[in-house]
Amino acid sequence: MEGAMSDEHLKESRLASATLHRGNFLTLKQDIVQLPNGRQAGREFVEHPGAVMMIPLFDDGTVLLERQYRYPVEQVMVEFPAGKLDPEEGALACGKRELIEETGYQAAQWDYLTRIHPVISYSTEFIDLFLARSLTPGEQDLDDGEFIELFMLPAGQLIDWVRQGRVTDVKTMIGAFWLEKILSGTWQPGEQPVPA
Description:
By secondary structure, the protein is an alpha+beta fold. It is built from 3 helices and 10 strands. The protein folds into 2 domains: 8-47, no CATH class; 51-184, Nucleoside Triphosphate Pyrophosphohydrolase (Alpha-Beta Complex). The chain has helices at 91-103, 155-164, 170-184; strands at 13-22, 27-34, 40-47, 51-56, 62-70, 75-79, 82-84, 106-116, 127-136, 149-154.
C-alpha cells in the first residue's frame, strides 16, 4: 500500500481465547474479539506453524512436480514440493531439507520469491516460496506414511494445466504464475529478503 495508511480503525482485539483441539500438526482455537464498533464476535481458526514451497527449475525449462494423495479432498493432487516449518527452523533451511526429503534433489541456487497466506479466513498458515535451481539428483527420504510420485513437466505446460483445472492446489498455482513472470523476464527472482 502507498503511504502511511493506518489500519487501526479496522483491527479487532482479542478478549478471550480457548484451545478446542491441539494436534501434532494443527491447533484449533476459538476466540472472542472486540470489533472496531465495540461489539463482540467469535472467531474460530486453525493455528499452523507455516510452510515452505520450492519451485525446482531445471536448466532446460522443465520443473519438478509431485503427485500426492490429499485425504481432505480425496484426490491425487499435482503440487510443487513443500513442507511444514519445524520449530526454530528458518525458511531456507526448511526448503533445503524438504526438497531433499521429498524429491532427493539438491539445489545450488536458491531465490526467495514471496510469502503467501493461502487461507486467511480461518488459518494462520503462511507459505514462503523459493525458486530452486542448479539441481542435482539424489535419493528421496520420505517420512513414514508419505507417498509421493515425482515427474517433470515443461514450465509452459504447467500454466496450461492451471488453466485447464488439472492443477488446483493454490500454492502451486501461485508458484506457476510467479514462474511464468520470471521466465518471461518480467520479474526478477531474489529481489526480496528471506523473512526471519
